[in-house]
Amino acid sequence: MAMNSNASQPNHHSFILTGIPGMPDKNAWMAFPLGFLYTLTLVGNGTILGVIKVDESLHEPMYYFLSILAVTDVSLSMSTLPSMLSIFWFNVSEIPFDACITQMFFIHGFGVVESGVLVSMAFDRFVAIRDPLRYASILTHGIIGKIGIAVLTRAVCVVFPVPFLIKRLPFCHSNVLSHSYCLHQDAMRLACASTRINSLYGLIIVIFTLGLDALIILFSYVLILKTVLGIASRDERLKALNTCLSHICAVLLFYVPLIGVTMIHRFGKHLSPVVHTLMANIYLLLPPVLNPIVYSVKTKQIWRRITYMFQRRMNRA
């Protein structure tokens, strides 16, 4: 009876996004830093893609996976860009219900894709260190393409039910979200009906995609470390481990903020809304900005190519 009563109440046709909680007059101060971060994301990842495309010596499995990661990072950033711009640049906080659900699908979808790409890159490092002579023959263009399709298909299949699970809920109380973009867990808490199915499905996604991916990556590095310790030469051991540093940084940049956001959502309800907003923004904005910087600095081939391109432009000027 309660469900029917709630469903009969008027349902919201839009959500209200939140900029800086409790300080809406300060939103304009965030416009330029956010614009700078989005610009840095596009320039950084675009540079990585351009360098890999131009330099034939980088046409190797490791760099193909890095290209996929760069495309995923840009896509994830572009998923949050429309609502971020509308709030901080144009002071428009309202988002239509269907647009919110669409954004939700892409944000969660590309998050799962990024996790899958990081698993693929861990497998790439394992093959490169465990069997370097057969590295190129194992990870052929066809295999890399199939891995990419599998990662994307998994993300679509996993996230596909989320919009329908949200759409079935009535929203007859507050329609104010706590972030500058739409997340499943954020919209779910505003429903005036049972969200048990949504919560259960969200938990299943976290455990069997992101959680399982993290365990696979950890297991991959246990095998990598075992292989490296079997190498006689100390210099060769360090050289092998050095090829993994960039990927390890990318994994930490993705999973540490993700764990932080999850813990705050579950156990930090007493914390200031500003803390929730800050952690959520760090989770979505930091990896796309820092990943190309990490790979540029830590990967000598990419750094040399970027330096060479920069010097050529300076000489032409």
From TrEMBL:
An example molecular function term from Gene Ontology annotations: G protein-coupled receptor activity
Membrane topology value: Multi-pass membrane protein
Cellular-component GO terms for this entry: plasma membrane
PROSITE patterns in UniProt: G_PROTEIN_RECEP_F1_1, G_PROTEIN_RECEP_F1_2
Protein localization: Cell membrane; Membrane
Pfam (any one): 7tm_4
Domain G-protein coupled receptors family 1 profile: residue ranges: 44-295
Signal peptide: none
Chief location bin: membrane
Transmembrane segments: 28-52, 64-89, 101-123, 143-166, 200-224, 245-268, 274-295
UniProt keyword list: Cell membrane, G-protein coupled receptor, Membrane, Olfaction, Receptor, Sensory transduction, Transducer, Transmembrane, Transmembrane helix
Cross-referenced CDD domains: 7tmA_OR51-like
GO biological process: cellular response to lipid
The protein's role, per its UniProt record: Putative odorant or sperm cell receptor.
PANTHER family noted in UniProt: OLFACTORY RECEPTOR 51H1 (PTHR26450:SF53), OLFACTORY RECEPTOR 56B1-RELATED (PTHR26450)
Family recorded in the similarity comment: Belongs to the G-protein coupled receptor 1 family.
Name this polypeptide is given: Olfactory receptor
Gene this chain is encoded by: LOC103681212
